[in-house]
Write a structure and sequence with these properties.
This protein has 184 residues and is α/β, with parallel strands linked by helices. It has 6 helices and 6 strands, in the order βααβαβαβαββα. It has a 6-stranded parallel β-sheet with strand order 3-2-1-4-5-6, with helices on both faces. β2, α3 and β3 form a beta-alpha-beta unit. The N and C termini lie far apart (43 Å).
């Protein structure tokens, strides 16, 4: 595998998906230990990303609206001037596919679903694939081995103020309003 000096990882949203992607973040860092790795994400995930130790930098995506071409131009300039050798698009969305186009003619290697990607992942059309399976297959295209279980030891918080008993369980019901199949 060629030495990559600068890598961008894109993971924008969905808390559950972000947590499930931590094993992918760790696998990318393990595969590219000396590379400068930048994460492009949204504000709610900044502190978690920084605490993970997987990234040298965390950029926030302000998700510019079409009515703000100045913000699109600024994002395009930032992406192009960063000199990324490879992008791992773990968001796999229309928005992140648009970011592929923002790189213009001198695109980095791209691991994702964007048409024209150097390492294009094509999800099966006949079934829904869990995010863990999708990311495992996607990263394998670029020679990254994703571990089944992430190391979450970096997630720490002082819970004393909650006065929890010694043994407890935490249930987090809910889900996205537009994804009723994810609700309990």
């Amino acid at each position: 595998m060629a030495q990559l000096n600068s890598i961008l990882v894109i993971k924008l949203s969905a808390l559950g998906d972000f947590i499930l992607s931590i094993a992918s973040f760790q696998a990318i860092r393990e595969t590219h230990p000396s590379a400068k790795i930048t994460l492009l994400t949204t504000a709610p995930y900044r502190r978690l990303a920084e605490a993970s130790g997987c990234f040298d930098e965390v950029w926030l995506d302000d998700r510019p609206r079409w009515s703000r071409p100045d913000l699109w131009f600024r994002l395009r300039k930032k992406l192009q001037s960063a000199g990324f050798d490879r992008v791992y698009d773990l968001q796999r969305s229309d928005r992140s596919g648009l970011y592929f186009k923002l790189f213009g003619a001198s695109k980095p290697e791209w691991v994702g679903i964007a048409p024209g990607a150097s390492h294009r992942y094509a999800p099966p059309r006949d079934k829904v694939v869990h995010i863990v399976e999708r990311e495992t297959a996607q990263l394998a295209l670029a020679g990254v081995h994703r571990h089944d279980v992430p190391d979450l030891s970096f997630i720490r918080a002082n819970l004393e103020r909650l006065q929890l008993p010694e043994r407890y369980a935490l249930l987090v019901p809910g889900g996205s309003a537009h994804r009723p199949e994810k609700r309990w």
